Structures are given as structure tokens and as C-alpha cells.
Structures
1.
Amino acid sequence: MVKFNIDDLNIWFGGVQALKGVSMKIMRNEILSVIGPANSGKTTFLRMLNRMNELHPNFKMSGEVELDGRKILELDVESLRKRVGTVFALPLPLPLSIFDNVAYGVKMHGLKSKTATSDIVEKSLKEAYLWDEVKDRLGASAFKLSGGQQQRLCIARTLAVEPEVILFDEPCSGLDPISTAKVEDAMLKLKVNYTIVLVTNNVKQAARVGDRTAFFLSGELIELDITDKMFTAPSDHRTEGYISGKFG
Amino acid sequence: MRNPKRNQKIAFFFLFLATLLIVVPVGMVVVIIVVKGLPAINWQFLSDIPRQGMRAGGIFPAIVGTVYLVLGAIIFALPIGLLAAIYLSEYAKENLLNRMIKLSIVNLAGVPSVVYGLFGLALFVVFFKFGASILSGSLTLGIMILPIIITTSREALESVPQSFREVSLSLGASKWQTIRHIVLPNAIPGIITGTILGIGRAAGETAPILFTVAAFYLPQLPKSIFDQAMALPYHLYVISTQVPNVDEKVRYGTALVLLSLVLFMNLTAVIIRYKFRKKKKW
Amino acid sequence: MRKFKEFIIEKLVLISGLASIFFVILIFLFLLKEGLALFKFVNPLQFLAGKSWYPISEPPQLGILPLILGSLVVTIGAAAISIPIGVACALYISEIAPGKVKETLKGGIELLAAIPSVVLGFIGMITIVPWIKHIFNLPTGLTALAGSVMLAFMAMPTIVSIAEDALYSVPRSYKEGALAMGATHWQTIWRVMLPAASSGIFAAVMLGIGRVIGETMAVMMITGNAAVIPSTILQPVRTLTATVAAEMGEAVVGSEHYFALFAIGIVLFVISFAINVTADLFLHRETKKI
């Protein structure tokens, strides 16, 4: 089942072209890792999938992105973002309590009932493996949590709006190895119910969690393959150079 | 230039002297008014109407008039100013229109206060036929403090980190929901600061109310927004220059009440700003 | 429904955003509406260059040259006092004063900005005016000089705070570079910081002068209000602003006098507009450079 179908996608910011003729498919319930050096366009690619690039004043694009066969530019942007959630590079809790961080999305989508909200908050925190650590202090400020806890809170917050796809934008770049392992663990378990796109600087992380891996360089998609195959027998020498650490 | 160290000492001494030349007189102004005004302050002075041709009695109607005027000005200016700040901080793109709005704000802030008075007279008093009234005066003052409210509110809104907005939008919240639930609550202290500064300014200005509302002497309190009113700054002007042989105490007392009101507002604004900076969560 | 609400709010926000432009235009239009009527009776040149201002004589003489010169004399005096002191104070605050002192001084300057002009006028009447009368042995202390001194104080907060901002925004590397080459702190300030911040300081001075020209109450209370062409600063003068403030109360709506006061309003508006636009250009240049 194809979740995203991307066809000849070009993106510019002002005069700079960030993505060049990218075409690919993202399958349902897979983890797709996206790797590449800095400024390779991987984050731009990710932010295209729920139209976050449009916040940039000089954004321009051509080509098509389809979600379940419908052009995302024709979808209502708020419901698109509800269906395609993001976990950002740094843990970015909102200046609210732990509970309100998780409840924020569903409240914005019109959920009024208090018990239903509590149920969703509890369920999401459990899915993100944070519940046991915070269940006694849901009213505390989210800033009181450690970095790893904050990042799992952000995952819970994204899960709460019941997305179909979750975009992870280098979610472990600010975390220590133990917190990273917890986040990766959460991702692997989420795969059952969600489609996951993971942008990462960490080649090993891509190898650990990705079903398939895409390699970007200077705005172009160089290679997209089954992760095991790419890491053992890449078909492009540039991919080989990058994953073996020759550059990047 | 042969002795740079000595030149530096001399130069720094003059810079320090210049600073003293500003700070000491300011301190003196405040001290003089407090010391000479304090003996005049008592309950009767604050709660009675002026008597004996404003040479005795109190200043109650002037206090009430100023409060009405300031309230009216804020009711008018706060919604417009806040929305304008939201426009500039959240919606405006870097283009000619935005540039023109900013330039207009700078100009509104720079228009001489007496020109506001003329404008209020021509538009509200004469053209709209509101007459010299609290309504005319409040609207005039409201337009005058608009730039203060816009500028401070905009700064407050822009100081909310961009990442909060991105997070909110990424969860599928709409632009307005993001502003309403994330940006505004975190900008509130700054907006309050701006509002209070606006109040202080409106309370102290005389020229804009000269021809739009201020009554020379009015022993009873205004009953509606279409009535004239006395106002503290104008009253101080009147008893200082227009009425001979006013007891010095009455003048100083009036000046003290006005000054305290304005400085109290500014002090509150400073304290809120300070507390907020210390408590900032990000 | 949510879309509709969003749409309405967006329009409301846009309209409020445009309000500033609208009000500036509205102010100018209403000044023109009432002020231009004057030129049915008096030609513009006579108005601007006429040497006598006798608005209630028959026929009224409505030449504002003495008022323009009155404003000019007071403004030049105030500028001469406030520019050097204000810039020096800005230098002291931004470069020399240690942390705590700096905050206190800034607070003090803000305090000065907050004092209502009518209170400063009142203080001027009981301090500066008698001092000047006494020192120069004059029949009255209500003179252009008194106005200049008082207005210098009202211009100083503007000059100090904007000049301080300009100095603050000079990149640290400039200063560190000069100090690293062995220049003293003062040499660095004089040769590096001041030139680097010059356009911001110029804007500060412009805005300070703008404040002085537009100031009304204090000036009306202490300059004596004699509408004659001044020959020294120890003479009573009458400024443009004070004329409007003092006479509008007596002018009959629709009379030549009334129109003339609005025409003065036009002059004031145009001056302040020119000053603010120029200052804004300079401030803009400052931010672009860095």
C-alpha cells in the first residue's frame, strides 16, 4: 500500500533550490529512514509532507505530493497536519503543563469532553513510554522534565491527535545514548500502527530502525532501497562514500 | 594625545558629569514636588470639589475626569492596538504595505500633542458633533497612545519563540488557534506593560484634551460620555497660570497627585517587565 | 464554521493593522480641511513670512514668522544643550557604567520621559524662571532661554535611549579589534564606537529635536508668549505650538483665526512628518549595515 506518492518535486527558498526532481513512494506501516549530509534537502523533504515549508516566506514548489492518492495541496492544511504529525529535532514542549501539552492537539481539533481528553492523554503517554514517569505530576510544567522525557512527551503529543504518519526530524540529535535507545524502541513499536519517516544524521540509527533508507545529496534523491541492501551493497558510489564515512 | 591614559580620565569625567546633569535635576524635580506637595495631601483634598475659585478645596472632579478619559482611551486603543500588533507580528509579510504601516506608527508617535488636539477638535468635536466631551477627549487620547500599545505589544508577541508556533501548527492547530492559545498567553505581560505605559501617557497629556474635553471649572462630576470633564493635567495648568493667588500648597499638591499617578503606572510596568524576564520559561 | 471564523479574524486583524495608516491620513486630511480655508483670506506667503501676528485685531494680521522664529530659537537652544549632554550620557550608560548602575540610570531616564510636560512646566515656572530673572537681572524670567533649558530635559530621554540603542548595536568585534590593537577605551569610543553608531545617533538627535518642536504645555508656561520676532534668547517668545494651545480656546469655529491655527497645525504636522521619516531612514540604515 502506497501512503505517499511524490512525483518530480522541486522546492526553492528564494533563489536557492533545496530539492531537485525528487520522485519516490512511501509505503504504509514502514519506517523510512532519510539520510544525507547537512543541506542535502532531507529536512525540507520531510517538512513538505505536512506542508510546514509553507511557513517560510520565500517558499516555492513544483511537482506533486499525494497522500492516499489525494494531492496534499488540495487538502485542508489543518487536517493534513492532524494526519501527518511531526516530532522535531529538539524537544520542544509548549509552555504548558505535561497534561496540556498532550491534550493541546485534540483540544484544538474540537474535543471538549474532559474524560475523553484524560483517556487520550493517558493512552498517548503510555504509547510513548512516559506514563509511568509522569502520571503523578501531570499538572507540572513540561519544562521540568529531562531532555529525553521531553522528547517522549513530544511524541505523545503527536500521537494524541491520532495521526496516520509520523515525521521524525532528527529526534535524537539532542539526546544521550540511553534516551536515544528509548526513543528508537518507541519508534519500532509504533510501526505497527503508523507510517514513520525518520530524518537522521546518524547513519547507524538509520540502519537500526529503517525498513528502507533514502539517501539525499545536494537536494537530489540519490538512492532508495531496502535498508539491509543499501548498507551492504549500495548501488551508487556516493551512497557508499557517505555511509562508510568518507564525507558528510 | 600624548598621554592617552590622562585623556581617558578627563573624557570619562565629562561623560559622568553629563550623566549627573540629567539625573540630578530629575531627582530634584521629584523630591521638590514630593516634599512640597505632601503637606497638601489629605482626604479632603482628594475627595472634595475645588472651592473659592479653585484656591481651596480639593481636586476630586479632576481625578475622576482623568480616570474616565484614560479608561475611554484604553477601551478604544487596546483592541485596535493589540490586533494591529498581531497583524505586524503574525500576518504581515516583508513588503511595501508593511513598511508603510511601520512608518505610519513612527509618525503617529511623533505628531505633536497639540496637533492631536486640533485633530480631535476638527474630527470629533466639530465634524462628528460630539462636542467638547469625554467621548471626544478619550478618542483623541486613544489615537495618541495607539503607537505605544502597538509597539510594545508587537515586541512582546515577537519575543515568543517561533518554535512554539511551529509545534502548534504541526499538530494541526489553525493559525488563529496558535495565536490565541500559544502566542497571546505568553505575550500577556508585555502587552500589559504597554497598556500601562499608554495609560500613564494618556493621564499626563494636556494639549490633546485642551479643546476636546477639558473644563476650566466644573463643580459636579460628569454624568455621561457626552459631558465635559475636568482633568488633572489641565487643572494643574489652570491653577499654575490662569488663576492668580492660588496657594502654593494647592499647586504642589495637584502636581504631586498627577506625578504619582503617572510614575506609579510606569513603575508598575517596569516591575511587570522585570518579573516576567526573570520568570521566562524558555 | 472554523474556516469562516478564521477568515473574519484575519480581516479584522488586517483592518487594525491598516488603522495606523488610516489615522495618519485622517489627521492630515482634517488639518487640511480646516487649515486650507485660511488661504481664501491670506496668501500662503503672507502667512508664512508675515511679520506680525495680531489675530484679533480688525482686520486680523496672521503672519507666523515671529512664531516660527520663536520655535526656532527655543529649539536651537534646547538642541545646543541636549545633544552634547544626551550623547555623553548615552556613552556613559552604554560604555562605562557597570551593570547595576546602568540599569538604574536607564530607569532614571525612563522616569524623566514619563513626567508629564505640564508638571515640568510647573517646575520650570518655580525654578528656572526666577533663576534666569535673577541671574540676568531681567524684568521677567519667562524667556526663550527658560524654554530651551526645560525642553532640553524633555529631549534628553529620547536622545539618550535611542543613541544608547545605536551604540549597543555596534558589533562587539569592532570594539574588541580596536582594544586589541592597544587603543585605550576612550580612543576606542571616540574613534570606533561613535563613528560606527553615527547614523543611529543622528536619528536620536532628530527625534529629540522633533520632540522639542512639538512640545506644547511646558513651553507655553515658561516662554512668556510674546509674539514678537526675538532678537536675543533672553526675551519672551511664542512658539507655534503654544500659539495653537493658548488661542484655540478663544477662536470662533469658522473664523479666520480658527483656520489660521489649523494652518499652523499643518506646518507642525509637516515638520514632524519630515523629521520622523528622515530619522526612520537613518535608523533603518543602521540596522541594515550590521
2.
Amino acid sequence: MKRLVFFIACLGLLGPAVSNAAKMDTRFYGYVDGYVESVQDQPGVDNSGARTELENSPEFDVPNLHVIVRSNYEDTTAFINLSGGGAGAVDVRTAWVDKQLLGEYLSFRIGELYRPFGLYNLILDAVPTYIGIEPPELFDGDHFLVTRTTNAMLHGKVNVGGTNFINYAMTTGNDERESDQLPVGLDVNFTMGTTLKAGVSYYTSGGAAVYNEDNPGGVVRWAEQDKFDVMGLYLQWTDPRWTVQLAGFQASHELVRDTGSGDYGLTTICSSANLSANSRTRFGCDSTLDSEEDYDVNTWYLRVGYNFNVGDMGQLVPYFQYDVYENEEVIFDKDFGGDKEAGLADDGKFTKWTLGTVYRPHPAAAFKIDYSQHLQDVQNESTNYGEIRFSYSYVWRL
Amino acid sequence: MNKLILTALATITFSTAAQASFQVIANSEFGKTSISKSDLTNIFTGLTTSWGGKNVKVCVMESSTGTAKAFLGAIGSEPGKFDQDWIKRELSGQGTAPESKSTTDAMVSCVKQSGGIGYIPAADAGKAEGVSKLSVN
């Protein structure tokens, strides 16, 4: 709340501080979105670690309202994204000031900002514009590979001929660092007009990192500390009708688990969380608690969509997605930082294909419906279960 | 954005409206008489925010017009994609969407602002007073 008051105060000060208001371009816009989802016949794990079937009733996400203010004054930009969450709380999603240092070659941004990392992190608030309802597993709230936001960025672009550009960004911030570590994120991509984008992203925790409740990333809740890096490649091809996206990421962790009896220590988790047999073995629940683990998280996805114009009705965009996620360290019980998808699998791996469609009556509104089928091994048995979702979003501007 | 939405509503159709030719215009401060097609594409798709060392202010005609369709076609886009791309840029903090105008006079006024660049129907080129008319190379 203090941050919110601070940023609103900054916004209020921005206008009067500039003498030549005619050169200032301030715009207010935002969006509302929400979704309904129903998971069918999802297996689970009971208190004894035995397989059971979860009773999932359709889940309505309370509509989220986002208000965005963007103000430009010559080569300086301020941007604030306020999010009204489902419980009535208002949070500062992002708030930053950006100043060009060397034209488009180099700019500096500071505040709370989304990090450029792959294809999706920057555009996840532009809900109507992308195919799919859920973000790629890389930025799934149950198992982020890296924090979505950070605090400072040097970024820029250089034209390498015609409509071809190389874009680059280097970020750092509080992220999940334990104390004075220097986490660094890098993102470099090549764009060919609006048709092709190919890039690489890298992140290092810069030393010891710990779970950050305010800004969760790659560190698990039961970590005493973790040192990790993330590397990924991504490719997007679009023409006015087709969109094809392919991306893969790997996170490598050197984890030291908290074996204590605190809320998220292994002693508590072993006794209170619904752990699978494999997780119990991995953690040493039934022998000696295992404090150190080096492990990798892998994920990749393919997304393909085609945009049909349907006359006065708007646009219809059928799409197909294929997602793979693999993380052996994950657990099932969400009360202890788990994940009901990967945490259910014996090996922490699931694949998911999705068929869906976006209907846009106009570019600022979208209604999306899709169906996903999960495939994973649960207690040595290959298991499928489905999930159907409906979402809506509307972008407005004053 | 309201104009953008209204424009998009009117244009995502199978309309067979006659395609008009266009005249690119820019603020005289640039001191230019021509622009390359790649620069034109970069500026209007938001790939770059400067031209000739100056920051640009992009002005577009409402995309229901034949002139807008002709122009977007020339830069390899179309109304739906163009609007989608700019919504994406605005909400991700990567750019400020162009001002959308409905008349030639409004376009000329927009381009007279510092860094202004836009286009008008070729038939109205005579109305482009006080701005530079650019040929596209």
C-alpha cells in the first residue's frame, strides 16, 4: 500500500513539474479481464500419498481491472499499471520512469518493471492481442522460472539495415536475492519488420537467492537458499494472418533446502503436505532429510494461430498450443508452494496440448475458449485429464 | 483508443472499398523531401520512434478510409493487425499509439506538431500547406 501511495504521489507531481504542458502527452487506459475454468477428472494425492480423484468445481476468477497511465515528455516516459485484484486490493503491477540516454541506442528505466524475457512477459497485460488464455509455463504463477518484474534496465535497439533491428536489454533489481547479490537478466533479439523475431534470454541469480513472497520467481518455498540461472531461445513468425511461436527455456538450480520445522521447512512439509511417494523419497522424508539438490527445470512450447476476418463480426483466431514442463523438485500441495499440474506427476513432467479460439469483435476486446488435455505419469500410470477455459478481456482508453 | 476501436469496428470487414493512393507528409523541421519505404514501415509500425535524429509523432487516418487501407498495405500491414500491434505496444510500455484523424485538415494539423509525420489522400496533396510532401523511395 505504501508503494501505491508513493507512485500515485509521483504521478500527481509529474504534471505540474513540467512547465511546457503542451509537449506532454499523457494517456489513460486499461483493461478488464477474467476467466472461468473447469478441470475434469483430475487425479490427486491424499494425506497418505495415495492416488485419489480431486473434486474440482468450475472456478470463476473475479474480474480484474487494470488502470494504466502513460506520460511522455520529450525523451522521458513515465508508466504506471495499477491492478485491482479480486479481493478488492489495489496493487502497483508496474511503475517506472524511462529516459533516453543515447537516442534509441540506449535508454535507462527504473522502478518496478516487467523484464524483457522471451516472447510473453512484456505483453501479458495486452490480453486481447495474443493467442491462448494461459501464459506459457515459463510465467505460470504456480511455477515461475524467474520473477516477472525487476527494478532497473538498460535497453536499446540498433537498426541493422532496412526494417531489421537488434534489440537488447540488461536488467537487475531486488528480484529474489538474499542480500547484496547482483542478479542480472539479459535479452537480445533480432526483428525483421513485424514478421520475424528471434532471440535469446538469460538470467542469473548472481549468488544466493531466497523465496520472495512479494515477487515470486524460480526459488521454491522450502529453499534455505538457491543459486540458479535460466537460459532460453525463442522464435516468432507472423504475417497479417499467421502467428507461429516456438520457445524453450532451461533453469539450472543449486538448491539448499530448509530442513527445519518452520512453515515451509522439510520437516513440516514431510509431515503435513500431501507428498507423492517420489517426493518423499527425494526429500528423504522417511530416512534422513536431504538438504542439497542440483536440478534443472525444462520447458518449451509451440503456439500456432490463424486470423480469419469474419466481415462485420470481427476476427476469429483458432489456435493450437503444445506445452512441455519438467521439474522434479515440484510438489503437489499448493498450501506449501506446490503445483497441481507438475506436482502430480511422478517425475514432475507433464505435456499439454490445447485447442482453442479467440473471437475479437474488435481489436480491443477478446473472448477466448479453449480445451487442454494434460498427459503425465501419476503413480506409474499414464494419466490424461482435461481442462476447459473461457476468458474475456476488454481494453479501453480515455 | 475509442477512435481506434471505432475505426477497427468499421474496418474489419470484407469491404471492397476502392483503394486510394496516398501522399506522405511530414513536419518541415525534418528538412526532407523523400523517405525510404523501410523508414516509413519502421516509423508507422513502431519499430523506431525517431527519424533523422528527431523523435517522431505519428499521425494516421482512421483505418476505415481507403487511404488508410492503401497506406497500411504499402507498409505490409492491414487494419486489424495494425491496431493489434499498437495495443500490444501501448499496454507493454513499448510505444505510444498514433493519433487517428478523420480528415485531411486534421491530419495536416497533427503533422504540424513537432516531429509530426503522416499521410493524406493523394488527391488532397494541394491542401498540405506548411508541411513537407515526401516521395517514397
